[in-house]
Design a protein that fits this description.
Layout lengths: L3 E5 L2 E7 L8 E4 L10 E4 L23 E15 L5 E8 L3 E4 L3 E16 L17
């Protein structure tokens, strides 16, 4: 199974990574190499070893704050919006599912008691600068 791409006007706004995704032994990167946050899926046998390493400094520019959700337990519904707040997709995620949001807007409904991870690029800009809310609700 492949990741689900959510697009608006030809641009990928988000990816859904179902818990049923498979990877050949090794690592499979699930989204485009040009995206500002990379998601890889690894399947390695016991005893596999990754040599100690670092990633060299590299200046990068991004215009948005990508977010990654991993649902450890429970169930949520994520609605994705384009840049004009038009709804373009809704996906339910449950235990083991994940999603990468690259652009546009989103909302999250908790459908069952949920424990999930949320990963974003930093630095955090503070409550007043971190989000732009849709005002016509």
């Amino acid at each position: 199974m492949d990741p689900v791409k959510i697009k608006a006007n030809g641009q990928v706004m988000a990816y859904v990574f179902p818990r049923t995704l498979g990877a050949p032994e090794g690592i499979r990167f699930l989204n485009d190499a040009a995206d500002p946050l990379q998601v890889g899926l690894m399947e390695r046998p016991a005893g596999h070893y990754v040599q100690p390493h670092m990633h060299p400094p590299c200046e990068r520019k991004t215009h948005m704050t990508p977010e990654f959700f991993f649902v450890q337990s429970g169930r949520i519904r994520v609605t994705i919006y384009d840049k004009k707040w038009k709804e373009i997709a809704r996906h339910e995620l449950q235990s083991g599912d994940s999603m990468l949001i690259l652009d546009g807007g989103h909302e999250v409904e908790i459908l069952e008691a949920t424990r999930m991870f949320e990963v974003k690029l930093g630095p955090y800009l503070g409550d007043e600068n971190a989000k732009v809310f849709r005002t016509n609700v």
